[in-house]
Amino acid sequence: MTEGQFSLVPIEVILDKRLTLEQTRVLIALFSFRNKVTDTVWPSRAKISERTGMHPSNISAATTALVGLGWLKKVGSGGHSKASRYTLCSPEETVAEQATVAHPATVAEEATVAQSATVADPATPPVAQSATPPVADAARGKEQTIEQTNELTILQPAAPTAPKVKAEPVDEKETALQAACRQTWAAYSEAYQRRYKTKPVRNQAVNAKVKQFVQRIGHDESPAVAAFFVDAVNEAFVVRLVHDFGQLLTRAEGYRTQWFNGAAITSTRAKQVDQSQANYDTAGEAMTILRQRRAEANAC
Q1: In angstroms, rounded to a whole number, what is the distance separating the alpha carbons of residues 185 and 175?
Q2: Do 19 and 105 belong together in one domain?
Q3: Of 200, 188, 259, which is closest to residue 227 (Cα–Cα)?
Q4: Given Cys at both, which of 33, 85, 161, 247 links 41, Cβ 3.0 to 4.6 Å?
Q5: pLDDT per position as a tens digit, 44-78
Q6: What CA–CA distance (Å, rounded) separates 59 from 127?
Q7: The pTM is what?
Q8: Phi-psi region of 92 (alpha: psi -120 to 50; beta: other; left: phi over 0)
Q9: Helical axes 252-261 vs 204-217, angle rounded to 10°
């Protein structure tokens, strides 16, 4: 731009949110050529290009758009031999004139900037928007709304799909073991309440013992053996420990055998069996001695 050159521009130029940066620069340059009496300008594209720093091919597109937006009124067609003449207007002054145009479709076509290979896209977005929109939005309102709606529809992200939750495989063996543990504890607890009129204490340590007991005896027999232990076993040390489950676990296989035979082995019964076995052994030894003596006598 020429050094020391100034241009008086209406404030409406800054407030018009429809103007792009290139259109604003061209409009300001045209105001710098304005005839203060007639508001008419006729600079060449080269002159406008010199003041705006824009390529001449982009200036025609900008002036066409400014005509459609109501900022310019073209006088004549211009051509290669002479520059086009424009009358600078305020968009509010051209509304009434646009309303009387016989072919509104022509106005809409002029308001839309023709896109071609030689028209460069604006480097920056339109000039800052005003709190009060300009009056002359009718020319591009419908097309602009459709384009914005399509852009918003494309840019909206798709709704995220809910992640699929993978079902964890069920361990049938563990499930069967848990069921057997519940049944075993239920049988033990019922027998315990019958004998001691209170529920047995249950905690993590007891749960671990119940699981070990079921694994040692088996799922099917564990509940019956646990109930038999409380109902039928009356050994002194077991009674002193009020049939603690730990005692059942310690001698699990032995109590299972007693349950299977239908009788608990007490200390007295154990002594009797031991005495009977001793007597049987003594009798066997005596019979052996008698047979030996008879054999010796027969030999003589």
Answers
A1: 16
A2: yes
A3: 188
A4: 33
A5: 888 888 888 888 888 888 888 888 888 888 876 65
A6: 18
A7: 0.38
A8: alpha
A9: 60
